[in-house]
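Slide 14.
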Amino acid sequence: MTAEFKVERKLFDEVMVPCYAPMEMIPDRGEGSRIWDQDGREYIDFAGGIAVSCLGHCHPVMVDALKAQAEKLWHLSNVMTNAPALRLAKKLTELCFAERVFFANSGAEANEAALKLARRWAKEVHGEEKSEIIAFTQGFHGRTFFTVTVGGQATYSDGFGPKPGHVTHLPYNDLSALSEAISSRTCAVMMEPLQGEGGIVTPDNEFLQGVRELCDKHDALLIFDEVQTGNGRTGTFYAYQQTGVVPDILSTAKSLGGGIPIGAMLTTAKLAEHMKIGTHGSTYGGNPLASAVAEAVIDEVSKPDVLEGVKVREKWFRDGLTRLNEKYDMFAEIRGKGLLMGAALNEKWQGRARDVLIAAGEEGLLLLVAGANVVRFTPSLVISEEEVMEGLSRLDRALAKLTAK
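Slide 15: predicted structure.
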């Protein structure tokens, strides 16, 4: 066996490409919504691995599925199919509008597949000139060159040379801007039904309805990026199911595997016909190990009591954050839906979301940010009331120290 040794944070700077600025502490183990670092210090986890750990850490149904599959079959490639992937695909189609599934390893890859399908459909049905993809500012769709270009944040997309073309960015939640821009050249409109990285921004339902109608009018596809909002995060299995608007293509990942890397593109049988043999592929996509764990995850998350519990937990958070704001006057708005929530900082605290994150970490609470002005909360969907209240108590201590400075 390889000898284990305690690693120090400085080793990151010595061996890792410096794309990240991780916390000083190094987690060692987790259970439920708690994490312990190498020194045994405990943290309450309100971050959930950025909306990934939907059942918390080491949930028994995930551990059991992983152990069982680990002793049977790990990998085959797409030269063969496998039973866990087929069972998972069948269950996903039963949970939403889709009839066909393509498995990948991440949200970026699921979105890459969605965009390639849209372009291929447009080319084969309408011709080369129908190639425009409309997306929205402050959107986020992944870090591949295509998806980061479609995402509407220059911070992530600039600095890598010429970008893929025929991508138009418009203001989110602005139907008149879309109405003016969309045309017969538009191949697809890609959007998050609730923006995550862009600040936890919920669109008006009239906007979503209008986007669908404009896509239909101009024969463009509607792609919903549900990488962050899907798998129960907002209180229904997919967020679109609360809106009355059905997309043509949907991407899912993050919490789909509960921590095991897996993503999927979901679509209709008619559209899927344009992805013929060899059109697209993935070596690891839909491997038996990831698929078996994801199947266990969605079996648990899709239970009515779990989905209803998300709405209960949203109220715990919303009420608790409101009480803290009455005490410290730091938030302009509590945003979001279900357990994808954001506390938008008011004018006095602009640009200090990361300060809140760091202060919380010092008190044993793990948070996220969504830009410089929004503190983001994406905990486990089954986090206990005790863990929520303890976490909010630690946030209280953190805010008290920040406001005292």
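Speaker note: Residues 205 and 262 are 30 Å apart (CA to CA).
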